[in-house]
Amino acid sequence: MAVKVLRRRDLTVWEKLYIPQIASGLKVTTAHLLRNLLLHSAHRLGLLQNRRAAVTFQYPEELRPLAPRFRSRHRLTVRDDGTPRCVGCMLCETVCPAHCITIVAGEHPDPNVEKYPVRFDIDLGVCVYCGYCVEVCPEDAIRMDTGILDVAAYSRDAMKLDIHELMNPSLRKPLTACMLEFPHECRLAGGEVSTRDHQRRN
Amino acid sequence: MIDLAVKVVLALFVFFGVLNLAALHTWLERKQSAVIQDRVGANRASILGWRLMGLFHPLADSIKMFTKEDIVPAGADRILHTLAPVFSVFFALVTFAAIPFGDRFLLGGRVIELQVAKINVALLYIFAMLSLEVYGVILAGFASRNNYALLGGLRATAQMISYEIALGIAVVGVIMIYGTMDLQELVRGQGQNLAGWIPLWGIVVQPVAFVVFLTAALAETKRIPFDLPEGESEIIGYFVEYSGMKFGMFFLADFLETILVACLATTLFFGGWQVPYLTSSGFQFPWGATLPVSQPAYVLLGVVSFSIKVVIFCVLFMQLRWTLPRFRYDQLMRLGWLGLFPIAVVNVLVTASALAFLKR
Ligand code: SF4
Ligand code: SF4
């Protein structure tokens, strides 16, 4: 076996003195300190706002800028008449690697559209944010561009989005009233949502 | 009786001043590191929505420390385990008694020295107390019934004893020049000017001693870059078995020592409470101008000058702490015994020869 001998460069006398090295280290930290102190003070006075003093984003108050292609929480796009653009083709449900989309299709009054989702649920507790559902959709009906990152809940059940939240991303749980005009299945409208589909698959 | 009252007031003044400065150190530590590293730093603790740049965090910290569970490991020596942090903080606090923070002033016909205890061998007293602090450390390691804590304690002891020698010898040069161990007299001795315009502070006559003193004193405080005894995040230190406020007391002792070192450096090398060109009768500038200053204002200026110098040193130490990486143990020992110790001895010899030559 070939042995490779790594020789470290010996320190020069200047480096061994150590004090000049401390000084150069102090120069770096002090430069940062003074620059940031100056910027922080200027910000207090409302000056130099375009230069950041700290790289920190003060999270709940200040959100990080997101890249345009960033995949955040889903939404269903909506037609002009307030119904979902989705035609219930089931492609997204089929492609979803996490099996977290549940669609129940119903008949659309317009024969050119044929179908629409009576029920459209996504279980975010299972979703892996791969974005395949968006890629596969033929109607540009599902998108992941809401910019919502703070998906958090106290129970698994609360992680499940139904069609209300998907069509109106500003809605947050608990939902109190059903606002969808077209016939659909949901707990708010009095109907019971069956979990049969999920049980069958799992 | 009145003398006693005066002493109590002075002692309380120093006590609260030092403890508050130590609490502020936690704030300084967080904020300064944050600003150096382009961060914002702890700023969330608030009272009624006021955050004051995170100034409430020391308060929140102490509430947290006091309300946390205090765990004494099974098999540990309960009494010594409790005594160790007390020792650390006690000996760190009593050293401040000998630090003069202002000139004497006259009040109702009596002379009040702004110093808690006027000891004519104040320097010896301070070094004695610093040595006794080792007990807190070694007891903490010993009483915890934890091999790693014991090893940490031994590391700390070896380090503190090694660097105390360099520290002591570095100071000898200063003592020889000013001819006194009384810190108040030593500060008065630094009141003259060299060649009319350079204040004759310790740093001017003993620059080498200053560097050695500062390095050794930083090692005494057991903080980065000399934090091998603690290294709380990765190498296990002597207070690994401590929790709650007992742990907090070790940290407090560290901060107190930092402040003590800042006070000592100010007193020995930066003229203590001296303000450049200020004498008890007023400013006497080297270009001939004079500005009379009343006696209380003179004393007050001295106290302010002392405080500013101490705070500057604290900030400097903090800056060093966030700049330098930690030493390896053999490097630490080599620096102490083969670096600082010989330099300090040579410095003493050179100073002695120079003094003998000048006196002749
Ligand atoms: S992002 Fe991926 S895992 Fe999530 S719902 Fe769409 S296809 Fe399924
Ligand atoms: S792929 Fe698009 S149109 Fe088809 S069911 Fe999914 S969301 Fe609806």
Tell me the domain tally of chain B.
1
Cofactors, ions, other ligands: iron/sulfur cluster
Strand fraction of chain B? 5-15%
Radius of gyration of chain A: 28 Å
Low-confidence stretches of chain A: 195-202
What Rg of chain B is obtained from the alpha carbons, in whole angstroms?
A: 22 Å
- Provide the domain count of chain A: 2
CATH structural fold name of the largest domain in chain A: Alpha-Beta Plaits
Largest sheet of chain A: 3 strands, antiparallel
**Biggest chain pair interface:** A-B, 17 and 14 residues
Strand order of the largest sheet of chain B: 5-6-7
Report the structural category of chain B.
Answer: mainly alpha
What's the number of helices of chain B?
11
Q: Mean pLDDT of chain B, nearest integer?
A: 89
What does the overall shape of chain A look like?
elongated
The gross shape of chain B turns out to be globular
Straight-line distance between termini of chain B: 49 Å
How would you spell out the order of helices and strands of chain B? HHHEEHHHEEHHHEEEHH
